[in-house]
Prior knowledge:
By secondary structure, the chain is α/β, with parallel strands linked by helices. Among the domains are: 127-285, no CATH class; 296-366, RNA polymerase sigma factor, region 2, helix turn helix motif (Rna Polymerase Sigma Factor, Chain: A). The chain is built from 15 helices and 10 strands. A 4-stranded mixed sheet has the order 8-7-9-10, with helices on one face. A 3-stranded parallel sheet has the order 1-2-3, with helices on both faces. Strand 4 (74-77), helix 4 and strand 5 form a beta-alpha-beta unit. Helix 8 packs across helix 13 and helix 13 runs parallel beside helix 15. The protein is globular.
Amino acid sequence: MEDFPSRFDVVAISTNERVDLLLRQASQFKPEGVCVCSPTARDTGAEIASAVGAQFHEGEAGLTEMVARYDADIVVVATVGFVGLMPTLKAIERGITVALANKEVLVTAGDLVMAAARERGVKLLPIDSEHNALFQCLNGCGEQSVRRLILTASGGPFRGRQPETLAAVTPDEALAHPTWNMGRKISIDSATMMNKGFEMIEAAHLFGVPPERIEVVIHPQSTIHSMVEYVDGSILAQLGRTDMYLPIQNVLMWPDRVENGFEPLDFAQLGQLTFEKPDPEGFPCLAYAYEAAARGGTCPAVLNGANEVAVARFLAGEIGFLGIARSIRNALDAHTLVSDPTLEQIHEADKEGRDAAQAVAAGTLG
């Protein structure tokens, strides 16, 4: 927005608890609406809204209220977790293009969301670097032309570690991502490789390619953001710096290509690009995601709900790192599948997964 002020007007913005950033952005962009989700930050959020002359919205419901109230050409859904679902559906209902940077929206309710988007003729443009890479490589080509989608993964901070050494890792170690600067929850998902499992499910919904034709490969340099192999054997890869600025710009400017201030990628300095297979023993969450995708229905919502709670408990020191996978396994094992769920049943499945993860005993490692 700052680099292209003539192209954008910000009509509403939100935060969970980063009121410091909210104050700077609200003062600069003068939005009509402001939303703060975290209860501990809402009083400050209300003060900021008043100071800039904006309407104040609060809590998860406030996100949907903002989408319903203000006129926009595009809604960027960049929340973390299940909370992004209802604002996305409201944007689709209003016929507004959605720039999606929230995996959990399609993980939990992909069939419903994509059906609604098709019915309303709404575009869902992916911001996540991997899905944006696939979006660019596909360039409108249909599923029938695709042999497989290849999602690249950095491998996270524990790539190459022996499984028996993971029980004692700390939250600080798990948060130390080797290539990307991400939020706490996403960083832990990367460390467990659940993030890549979520990306697989999201890609299946976005591009109409079944999970068994979506592969994950470890690429430590994080220079190739994903690849498409076509039925004729040709493979297209999207490369770029490890900076979310680039996929965000691609989506917000789409279909235009606009010059920015980034230096060209120096291939000689890169040296080499390497690849390896994921370790299913050390990182079972990726396999759990494929299982949930194969079962379909309410299983991905249970998977996501359990993961959100388990990650929060790990960060709080209530369970060990391996307890995250154990919590998810328990939730999936206890769940009775609903194959064609309603929105209400998806909400129920999300709660079931959360409750199951919360019931895992404190101190559990795996």
